[in-house]
Amino acid sequence: MATRAVRVVPTDDSADNGALDSIMEAANGGGGGGEAIGLPDKLTMQGDVERLNNRLRRMNAGLLNPRGKIMQYWDFFTLSALFYTATVTPYEVCMMWAEPKFYNPTSTWLTPLFIVNWFVNVVFMVDICFNFFLPYREPIAKGGGMVKNHRLIAKNYLYSWFPLDIISVVPVDNIMMAIDTTQIKGASMLAAIRLLRLLRLIKLARILRASRIFSRWENSISLSYAKQDLIRWTIIIMILLHWLACILGILAQLMAPPRTDALAEAVQTAIAAGDPQCYGCMPDGDLSPGNLCASPCLTPCEVAQLARLRQPNAYDNEIATEESRIYLGQSWVCRYANDGAIAPPVWHAEVWIAAMYVALIQLGGGVGSIVPMNWLEYIVFSFGIILGSVTWAMVVGTICATMATGDPKANEFKAGMDALNYFLEDMQMPAALRVRAREYFRNKRDLLKTASYNDLLHEFSPDLQADIVLHMSAKTLDIVWYLSSLEQGARVELAMRLERAGYAPREKISSVKLTILMRGVAAKAGNILTPPAHWGDDMVVSSVSLRDMRHASALTYVEVATLSRDDLDDVLANFPASAAIIRQAAMRVAMKRAVVIISEFVRSRRELQANSDPRLKQQRQLQNAFGGGDSSDDPAMILRVLTGGNLKDIVDGQLVEEVGGVAPTATMATLAKDIREIKEQLAKLVK
């Protein structure tokens, strides 16, 4: 006696143990009577798995996950510190001219800005420590794997980013606090002090850390590369404008006023002589250069006295020329502040706005109302114009490229619409037909875009492709009641076999295939159908007599997903459990349809026989299609005729028929027509 093979499909809760049991059964030769293949038993394999997990835990011990939650929050925190460094630090160094006397213990150097700077410095120090525990990916030439060895991680960091990172956290502010500025003598004392402040700009080296952070975020960013380029260049432009403005500010700081002891004495002499228009930045007490005041701009009196010192025996016109030379030799801030065009240097925010205006003009390759007047400014302004022009040209190129290739599918659609318009014009199509064609093409835009993704899916690995396809089509398959319970592998294969099509209004939609309505409104058998409606689910029934083959009609533009019976059979050939589910579904559909047909036919025929009107004589011949005589009232006999065989038994959800059954002499369409004619004749008799 043959035994029945049973395949148990594991549930979600027992999937792992079930898979392991299957391996053990195969290893021991179970189920097929074959020889064991020598695999270890279940307990041994569980021990190996546990040892592997322990080894993985040891490998990851003491390491930070580059894509973990901790590093995501820390990266955001570090980016905030980088933004502060890129904006506030240049402004502080280049625009805030008032220098605190750090060496003086009584000075108030502990300002909020100083505290924030130290806090940001601590953030980058901690980030340096994190990099010693952060795995890195080795080059593709070496395998492209993730390196998790502590020694190799430290070596890689020390030979790459560590020198630059350690320089960027040097506490320049504290170093300057240790410098005794009172010991610096000479007329260039202020310029020397401000030159030391430039060391703070070393902090800008931290900005290079942003590339490492974005490399960790690359797989999490869903923006297109075109949009990423636009955002990147927008940030670059804003930062460049700010930095160009700050360069103009530090330029003005480094241009120290030419004050000397002789100039101070000349100004004091002029004041003592009773000149009411003469005033200057006078020292307090000692006339040594170390005690000169910190004002960066010469007063008109200082300019006049300095011109006479340089040209002691010159004529008045020569003195005037020298005064003009001295005046123009000052920084642009001093010149325009003396003219009242901008605020004095102590109002650093207004000076920054004026510098931003100059930088914005330089970005377009020009010069505005603030122009250079000395050789140093000519050099800096020229550099700003060249840098701004090149950067802006690259931005314009990026914008043009983005507009040209920003959305390839949109460009393809526009090209297709242009081709359609040329075609309609060349073929001299009527206006109404042109409107219908354009409407259909526009409605089909999303369908064409979705269809183009099929080629992209083939670029993924099999498992990843299956996960993506299942996610895309899971809800679509769940609409059909018997597809939602199939095996996952079968659902993936069916999802890849789905075909999408679009129909214009008033077009007929076939019911030969399983059809799922994805978009639009359709009508079938007097019913209005909207998504997620479906029809043609009776395709699983082999007998055409038991299927509803009436067409559906598109009331609006309609998009459907279809699945043919051949594709379903091809997939089920590799999934026996799913095939059994489909057979059971087919039996349920067939039995429901058969009961309805038999009931309707028997009722109509009995009503016909009860009427003796001779006009209905030809209708009585319908019983000959079902064998005639009394046996034609038997539902089983009618079912055998409809299905084309003799119903024998139902085994495992399958309809078993006898070989050589009676061929059907009536199809469902013929039977439905006969029933309809009988009803019409009976209705006329009643009237």
Describe this structure in words.
The protein is an alpha+beta fold. It has helices at 15-27, 42-59, 69-95, 112-131, 150-158, 162-168, 172-177, 189-197, 209-217, 225-254, 261-272, 300-310, 316-329, 332-338, 348-363, 375-405, 408-426, 431-443, 445-451, 453-457, 462-478, 488-497, 565-572, 576-609, 635-643, 668-686; strands at residues 136-137, 146-147, 499-503, 508-509, 514-519, 522-524, 527-529, 534-535, 552-554, 558-563, 647-651, 654-657. The chain is built from 26 helices and twelve strands. α10 packs across α15 and α12 packs across α13. It is elongated and about 145 Å long. The two termini are 66 Å apart.
Feature tags:
687 residues, alpha+beta, four-stranded antiparallel β-sheet, disordered N terminus
Question: Which secondary structure elements does this structure contain, and how are they paired or packed?
Answer:
Layout: H1 15-27, H2 42-59, H3 69-95, H4 112-131, E1 136-137, E2 146-147, H5 150-158, H6 162-168, H7 172-177, H8 189-197, H9 209-217, H10 225-254, H11 261-272, H12 300-310, H13 316-329, H14 332-338, H15 348-363, H16 375-405, H17 408-426, H18 431-443, H19 445-451, H20 453-457, H21 462-478, H22 488-497, E3 499-503, E4 508-509, E5 514-519, E6 522-524, E7 527-529, E8 534-535, E9 552-554, E10 558-563, H23 565-572, H24 576-609, H25 635-643, E11 647-651, E12 654-657, H26 668-686
Antiparallel strand pairs: 1-2, 3-10, 4-9, 5-8, 5-10, 6-7, 6-9, 11-12
